Automatic annotation (TrEMBL):
Keyword DNA-binding carried by entry: yes
Gene3D superfamilies: Tetracycline Repressor, domain 2 (1.10.357.10)
Domain HTH tetR-type: 5-65
Keyword field: DNA-binding
A Pfam short name: TetR_N
Molecular functions (GO terms): DNA binding
Organism field: Dactylosporangium siamense
Residues annotated to bind DNA: 28-47
Protein name: HTH tetR-type domain-containing protein
Superkingdom of source: Bacteria
Keyword DNA-binding: yes
Length: 188
């Protein structure tokens, strides 16, 4: 017996299914309503604007298709991001939704994403003596370089595949970390 699915989740699942054949811009609220078997008005109640739908769809895809495994060390973080970039290559339509959603202004009252909190926790352990300002800057940089936006820019702008994007990620992260490796980093 299947678990009941709430309307908002059913809309997001249908939007994700439609992404296999259409771009996000080509998915209408009418098509979503027809897929789910609800009225178009109900779709609008759940997602008043396309920006709301895009943000929610991006979050749902992130949780269901690109979950990030827990990481504690920088090495674990790098491995998780490499896996994520390979997953993006396997489902580029979903990854591009995440990239596009990160480029719009926020529409949801959401707390920081799991990856942001996990990066901050990793830095609390790995770079416990790093001052707050530099830790926030480093966390923001690591968050960007591990994002769908970074992947999408390198994929479309330079026609790179996941392996090449992983190399670019490693170089960027390595450069950032090398500047802080003095007495700042906790010794393993």
């Amino acid at each position: 017996m299947e678990e009941p699915v709430d309307t908002a989740t059913a809309i997001l699942a249908s939007a994700a299914a439609l992404l296999r054949e259409h771009t996000f811009d080509d998915i209408s609220y009418r098509a979503l309503a027809d897929e789910v078997g609800i009225s178009e008005r109900t779709v609008y109640r759940q997602y008043p604007t396309r920006a709301h739908l895009l943000a929610a769809l991006s979050n749902w895809i992130e949780q269901t298709h690109f979950p990030l495994p827990p990481f504690v060390t920088v090495a674990d973080f790098r491995a998780a991001v490499h896996d994520r970039f390979r997953a993006f290559d396997a489902s580029p339509a979903y990854a591009f939704v995440g990239a596009r959603a990160s480029a719009i202004s926020p529409t949801l009252d959401a707390e920081p994403a799991y990856i942001t909190r996990a990066i901050e926790a990793m830095l609390d352990v790995s770079a416990s003596t790093l001052n707050r300002r530099d830790r926030r800057r480093l966390a923001a940089s690591l968050r960007y370089f591990s994002s769908a936006m970074f992947w999408a820019r390198l994929r479309t702008g330079f026609d790179m595949d996941a392996g090449e994007i992983c190399d670019a990620f490693d170089r960027a992260v390595g450069t950032m970390l090398a500047r802080l490796l003095d007495a700042t980093w906790a010794k393993p």
